[in-house]
């Protein structure tokens, strides 16, 4: 047997107990089932002991997708080794502590591979995290379907890799969860969790994606603040006293358990979990992966001992579940930053993908530290000469309508001390649990916030110089805002076509795959701010009128043609004939069945690009 069995599961008279199934057809443990196991979810489903046997680490039936006690697998795309023509990836597997280290066997249509061994990343209670590095040699002309099994037992999974000479296909999505304020009724009106997920997986079944880029808010961790454990800290009125109050051992134990369990439930009891068995992920982090607005609060909160230490626990589990790494191995695994965890990958020879970490180093005064920007451009300058597109994935859009009037209103509320008035504090839509204006973190999160405009400008100008000297088209893709749209930076000279304009940098906004869209009044406010703006005297920026018609064939509400408040994801395919990038934003239909595609074509930058 390649999976372990305990004495309760096996005896010399009966052998292995036959697999038992619940009403949903999910194995009740099969070989891992033991007499006396509680077959219902214990009362506290948000704790480890509500999902795993505390003695053995065996997952309870509601978590099982395999007959053994393994949670996963979850595929991740690591990089393309262009010189060796090799696709590199990793598989995350979680197993009870008593199990032997797992292996993965691949079959790319030639012959089964030797088992790929695992590396132990971490352990929580009786559960062990393993990373298994895998690689596939790319054929010259033939795309491959690669089958794989964990421990050479159980289900056979599959993923797809392109050939050396065929286009890469990838998808992007963000905001895979619900805000705490969303009612069950509102969820039902949208068709529940999986309308867009079902469409994405259906499209994958007919034209497989090679990578899914998860654009932030892969789960919503805001629930962590609902625990009573924070009440003594939140009750401290003096800001400096709250800043210096200790992060207690009880807080640490709660944080460890919360993030471990919340990830298990959100990742492995969902369509996202299903997708990770067949579409390798590459993830960037946004605030809700940690908690709402992290990095955009005043210094006394950001630098408080509680915030600083709690953020470390959030990043510990982001690294394990989303990056297949840990603190000691992160740099070895390709993540970089002065303190954060960004990445740069080759989506084949023609497209490079950059995923900056815009959360770990974030403060009210900066998004990314100067040294990290230098590290980004050092790596960009080392890209292969074959690269024609650089796609930069950001949590929050960098081309976006200005919301300065909202910023000024919130600044006025704060400057007048209104947050201290009881009648304001009772209005939960105005003040958050820390006594700060509720929307101020959302405003400060944006690249177009007044506090970040200079940093944004310097970043864009450095990217312009990179595009000019390397003849690489720079494109931004972002999520966060629960609506979709497209915009661009471009030379102020209207006669200059995109093919010759290194300042032309389009942006796709694709959000959310699950969460509720903003109400129409918000879209109206955003649309009102969607004007043409000047970055400098050579560059302007604007949003496109992409949505002349809504998914129902009629004009969108209030003729808001630049931003559409519907759930969505986006797809990207290289056109190797002219090196353009074909983009589609797939927007959920009004009847909650399937999506309508809105196409955008991103032209490559010609070698004879404008040098003025």
From TrEMBL:
<feature type="domain" description="PhoD-like phosphatase">
    <location>
        <begin position="156"/>
        <end position="412"/>
    </location>
</feature>
<dbReference type="InterPro" id="IPR038607">
    <property type="entry name" value="PhoD-like_sf"/>
</dbReference>
<dbReference type="InterPro" id="IPR043904">
    <property type="entry name" value="PhoD_2-like"/>
</dbReference>
<dbReference type="GO" id="GO:0016020">
    <property type="term" value="C:membrane"/>
</dbReference>
<feature type="domain" description="PhoD-like phosphatase">
    <location>
        <begin position="428"/>
        <end position="576"/>
    </location>
</feature>
<protein>
    <recommendedName>
        <fullName>PhoD-like phosphatase domain-containing protein</fullName>
    </recommendedName>
</protein>
<dbReference type="Pfam" id="PF19050">
    <property type="entry name" value="PhoD_2"/>
</dbReference>
């Amino acid at each position: 047997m390649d999976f372990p069995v305990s004495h309760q599961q096996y005896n010399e008279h009966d052998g292995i107990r036959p697999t038992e199934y619940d009403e949903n057809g999910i194995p009740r443990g099969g070989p891992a089932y033991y007499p006396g196991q509680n077959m219902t979810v214990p009362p506290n489903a948000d704790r480890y002991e509500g999902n795993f046997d505390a003695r053995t680490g065996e997952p309870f039936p509601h978590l099982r997708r395999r007959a053994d006690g393994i949670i996963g697998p979850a595929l991740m795309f690591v990089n393309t080794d262009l010189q060796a023509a090799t696709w590199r990836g990793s598989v995350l597997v979680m197993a009870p502590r008593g199990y032997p280290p797992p292996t993965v066997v691949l079959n790319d249509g030639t012959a089964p591979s030797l088992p790929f061994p695992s590396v132990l990343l971490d352990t929580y209670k009786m559960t062990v995290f393993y990373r298994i590095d895998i690689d596939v040699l790319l054929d010259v002309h033939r795309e491959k379907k690669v089958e794989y099994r964990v421990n050479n037992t159980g289900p056979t999974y599959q993923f797809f890799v392109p050939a050396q000479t065929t286009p890469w296909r990838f998808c992007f999505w963000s905001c895979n969860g619900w805000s705490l304020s969303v009612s069950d009724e509102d969820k039902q009106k949208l068709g529940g969790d999986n309308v867009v997920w079902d469409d994405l997986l259906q499209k994958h079944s007919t034209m497989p994606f090679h990578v899914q880029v998860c654009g932030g808010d892969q789960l919503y961790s805001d629930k962590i603040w609902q625990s009573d454990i924070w009440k003594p800290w939140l009750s401290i009125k003096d800001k400096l006293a709250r800043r210096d109050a200790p992060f207690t051992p009880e807080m640490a134990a709660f944080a460890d358990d919360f993030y471990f369990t919340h990830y298990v439930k959100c990742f492995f009891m969902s369509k996202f979990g299903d997708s990770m068995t067949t579409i390798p992920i590459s993830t960037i982090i946004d605030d809700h992966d940690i908690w709402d607005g992290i990095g955009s609060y005043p210094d006394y909160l950001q630098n408080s001992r509680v915030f600083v230490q709690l953020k470390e626990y959030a990043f510990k589990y982001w690294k394990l579940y989303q990056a297949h790494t840990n603190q000691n191995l992160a740099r070895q695994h390709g993540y970089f930053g002065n303190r954060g965890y960004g990445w740069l990958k080759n989506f084949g020879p023609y497209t490079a993908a950059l995923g900056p970490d815009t959360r770990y180093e974030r403060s009210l005064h900066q998004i990314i530290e100067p040294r990290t920007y230098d590290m980004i451009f050092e790596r960009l300058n080392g890209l292969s000469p074959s690269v024609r597109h650089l796609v930069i994935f950001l949590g929050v859009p960098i081309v976006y309508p200005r919301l300065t009037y909202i910023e000024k209103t919130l600044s006025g509320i704060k400057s007048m001390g209104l947050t201290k008035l009881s009648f304001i504090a009772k209005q939960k839509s105005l003040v958050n649990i820390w006594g700060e204006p509720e929307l101020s973190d959302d405003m400060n999160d944006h690249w177009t916030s007044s506090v970040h405009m200079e940093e944004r400008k310097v970043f864009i100008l450095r990217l312009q110089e990179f595009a000019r000297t390397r003849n690489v088209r720079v494109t931004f893709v972002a999520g966060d805002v629960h609506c979709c749209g497209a915009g661009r930076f471009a030379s102020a000279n209207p006669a200059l076509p995109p093919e010759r304009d290194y300042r032309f940098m389009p942006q796709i906004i694709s959000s959310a795959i699950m969460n509720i869209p903003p109400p129409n009044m918000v879209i109206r406010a955003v649309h009102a701010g969607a004007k043409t703006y000047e970055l400098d005297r050579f560059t302007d920026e604007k949003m496109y009128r992409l949505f002349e018609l809504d998914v129902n064939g009629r004009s969108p509400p209030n003729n808001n043609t630049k931003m559409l408040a519907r759930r969505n994801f986006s797809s990207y395919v290289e056109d190797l004939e002219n090196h353009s990038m074909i983009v589609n934003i797939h927007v959920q239909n009004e009847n909650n069945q399937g999506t309508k595609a809105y196409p955008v074509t991103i032209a490559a930058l010609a070698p004879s690009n404008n040098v003025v």
